[in-house]
From TrEMBL:
Keywords: DNA-binding, Phosphoprotein, Transcription, Transcription regulation
Domain OmpR/PhoB-type: 132-231
Protein name: Response regulator transcription factor
Entry-annotated residues carrying 4-aspartylphosphate: D60
DNA-binding region (UniProt annotation): 132-231
Domain Response regulatory, residue spans: 10-124
Entry keyword annotation includes Transport: no
Classification via CDD domains: REC_OmpR (cd17574), trans_reg_C (cd00383)
Entry keyword annotation includes Nucleotide-binding: no
InterPro entries linked: OmpR/PhoB-type_DNA-bd (IPR001867), Sig_transdc_resp-reg_receiver (IPR001789), WalR-like (IPR039420)
Length: 236
């Protein structure tokens, strides 16, 4: 299972600052997004929406021929892709208006590039869920659609953290996933200090997926580095 499909989504960036658009394209490209178009006016943005059918838009509020709020209202008349406002207007009233007319998120300039990527990733994952086939392990299967482990003796539900942890490992099946990467997947942008909690989740997962939890065959510890999920051949 992989989230690489998100990187294929078509992103529209709308801002009248050319330098900012260039920077945004660079930030998103470095994060793996390459299917990007930009617009500097409401008219350009609507034209791209009609012809190109974007799957997410990042909108400024202040534009030379109108504003982002009116643009979003016009978009919503015919299309329903997710929208993130990225603007210098940080007053509560502006945030409430943006979210109230259907925006999925609202960020205020200046912004941290990493936060922007995390928010875009989060919106895309919520709005474009990938079909998730079973992931087959040595003694069980993971059903991400139902958030449960399927074993011969029955089904075991996954907690939210167990689900996120197994998702991160499954996306990198057969490869080492570092402790820092797993902590970030579970606890976000400030993952430090959660190593003991991570180990506790690993133990509970092994109790659900391994035949002998103390002798794991599917969820392997790579000493000093992290963990690796071993799936059956052909089911990575």
């Amino acid at each position: 299972m992989t989230y690489d499909y998100l990187k294929e989504k078509k992103l529209l960036l709308v801002d009248d600052e050319k330098d900012l658009l260039t920077m945004l394209v660079s930030i998103l490209s470095e994060a793996g997004y390459h299917n990007i178009q930009t617009a500097s006016t409401v008219k350009e943005a609507l034209d791209i929406c009609r012809k190109w059918q974007p799957q997410l838009a990042v909108l400024d509020v202040m534009l030379p021929d109108g504003d982002g709020f009116s643009l979003l209202k016009e978009i919503r008349r015919t299309q329903d892709f997710p929208v993130l406002f990225l603007t210098a207007r940080g007053e509560d009233e502006d945030k409430f208006e943006g979210l109230g007319i259907g925006a999925d998120d609202y960020m205020v300039k200046p912004f941290l590039p990493k936060e922007l990527i995390l928010r875009i990733n989060g919106i895309l994952r919520r709005c474009y869920k990938e079909e998730t086939p079973l992931v087959h392990l040595a003694y069980c299967s993971i059903d991400f659609e139902r958030a449960e482990i399927i074993r011969e003796d029955g089904h075991l539900p996954l907690t939210a953290k167990e689900y996120e942890l197994l998702s991160a490992l499954s996306r990198n099946a057969g490869r080492i996933v570092t402790i820092d990467m797993l902590c970030e997947a579970l606890w976000g942008d400030n993952p430090y200090g959660y190593e003991n909690s991570l180990m506790a989740h690993i133990r509970r997962i092994r109790e659900k997926i391994e035949q002998v939890p103390s002798q794991p065959e599917s969820l392997i510890t790579v000493k000093g580095l992290g963990y690796k999920l071993i799936t059956k051949e052909g089911h990575k």
